[in-house]
Design goal:
flat; 3 domains; MetI-like fold; 18 helices
Length: about 475
């Protein structure tokens, strides 16, 4: 039974539990809802939760445990040589899963029974022909033992799925029975439901925290492996980025860090004034009819994929800057440049700043504006000296969000700024960023434990702490400013 069908069965049982528990509660009160401790719907909700939650938790735990257990059993069947080599075990298990999927397709397409599949011998010439009919091609290096392991893998998966289905359905029925039997007019169903919602919120917050910790630990563990093979001082203070993929590589971070900050700086020079001035106009000056037209049109830009912006930088902005500014002034002759990527990223970020700043400025109480007007200030003076200072914490948050997006942008930089890792001040030269090199270092068939691949994790942890530092600076700035105006 598939996971989707099993989930549907559990939901049906839970819905039946909701209906029957609600009816039982009303019956215990003689049809008078005022005699119940909680509203009738709470009794149904409690039964639904008692039925669905244990069943779904059991199903999730089963799925998490079953896969590694079957993999370990299959690897053990392949022999000690495969089990001792982690890379070989991973590659072999990939072949096993592919063949097992082909056996499923054979059973579905040709109506083969489990006994037929069990009786299939490892005559690889026949097996290759049959699997080729369902689109699974076997390499010449795959031996009979891999085919036998695939059969065992598939049988174990099917047996596990059947056992999981029976266990989960029994758990749902047991939860339904417990909830139904304890339902009466004195049962505190509302407390049960509200406590569940509370723990649901706590669980969501815990998952968010654990996800962040998991990201940091995964990056940190691989970064430690990289720094065990390459000196940390040369990585953070080196001025040459030249991975060779055959040894003798140089991994100097400074050119990538400079390119990241330089392109982000140019983009913020574009997006902050445009976004902030647009927000001031739409929030303070524009008539309602004009605002209702301008704001949605600006926000449409935020929905355009970044790859489209990259094409715009490659085809339009880059050639324009090269032909009309860089070449006539002697600053360069390439369409890929810091200015090209910075301008396009700035246009991309303008809707984020304008939309957030508009909402923040509009939320400033009118009493502040009226008090300023009462003192004789003009509208522009009120905006400069009252509205913007009051909205400054939110505006700083909007600028920080746009800055983080600019630092993490990849596609526009690839198409608009090139891939040259170098230090320089000329904005019409090609440069690159940390995110671009993370992608390039993880692309291709490279040994995962080589420095040329592990350096991507060192770049990732550096980028993480860079954005973390921006967040800490923004919090410090906002708190200091609020102390002056509270």
């Amino acid at each position: 039974m598939s996971v989707g069908l099993l989930s549907l069965i559990v939901l049906v049982i839970s819905t039946i539990g909701f209906i029957l528990a609600r009816a039982r509660a009303m019956k215990s009160a003689g049809g008078n809802a005022r005699l119940l401790h909680s509203l009738p719907s709470y009794y149904g909700q409690a039964a639904f939760l008692f039925t669905a939650v244990p069943a779904f938790l059991l199903m999730v735990l089963w799925l998490l445990i079953q896969g590694p257990m079957i993999d370990a059993r299959t690897i053990g069947q392949l022999g000690p040589q495969v089990a001792a080599d982690a890379t070989a075990a991973q590659l072999t298990m990939s072949d096993v899963r592919r063949i097992a999927g082909g056996l499923d397709a054979l059973q579905a397409q040709f109506g083969m029974s489990n006994e037929d599949l069990r009786d299939m011998r490892a005559d690889l010439s026949d097996v290759r022909g049959r699997l080729a009919e369902v689109g699974v091609a076997l390499g010449s290096e795959i031996g009979p033992e891999v085919f036998e392991a695939a059969k065992s893998y598939r049988i174990a998966q099917q047996s596990g799925a059947i056992a999981m289905s029976i266990t989960v359905i029994l758990a749902a029925l047991a939860g339904f029975a417990i909830a139904f039997l304890r339902t009466n007019r004195d049962f505190r169903a509302r407390n049960v439901t509200e406590n569940f919602i509370l723990w649901l919120f706590i669980g969501a917050a815990t998952i968010a925290i654990l996800t962040t910790i998991g990201i940091v630990l995964s990056l940190l563990s691989e970064s430690i492996r990289f720094f065990s093979q390459y000196p940390i001082s040369q990585f953070y203070f080196g001025t040459v980025w030249n991975p060779q993929f055959r040894g003798g590589s140089d991994f100097g971070l400074l050119p990538l860090l400079w390119g990241t900050l330089y392109i982000s700086f140019v983009s913020m020079l574009v997006s902050v004034p445009l976004g902030l001035f647009t927000a001031i106009y739409t929030a303070e000056y524009a008539p309602e009819r004009v605002r209702n037209v301008i704001k949605p049109l600006i926000e449409v830009i935020a929905g355009i994929p970044t790859v489209v912006f990259g094409l715009f930088a490659l085809v339009t902005v880059g050639p324009f800057l090269r032909d009309f500014i860089a070449v006539p002034t002697g600053l360069g002759n390439s369409g890929s440049s810091v200015m090209n990527a910075g301008l396009v990223i700035g246009i991309l970020n303008t809707p984020f700043i304008s939309s957030l700043a508009d909402d923040i400025i509009s939320s400033v109480p009118n009493s502040l504006r009226e008090g300023s007007y009462g003192l004789g200030a003009t509208q522009s003076e009120t905006i400069r000296q009252v509205v913007l200072p009051a909205a400054l914490p939110g505006i700083v948050g909007a600028v920080l969000l746009a800055t983080s997006r600019a630092i993490g942008e990849t596609m526009i930089v690839v198409m608009g700024a090139g891939a040259a890792a170098k230090l320089g001040l000329n904005p019409f030269e090609a440069m690159t960023t940390i995110t671009v090199k993370i992608v390039s270092q993880l692309t291709g068939d490279l040994a995962f434990d080589s420095p040329e691949t592990l350096v991507a994790f060192a770049l990732g942890i550096t980028l993480f702490f860079l954005t973390l530092g921006l967040n800490i600076f923004a919090l410090w700035f906002v708190r200091k400013y609020r102390e002056q105006y509270d």
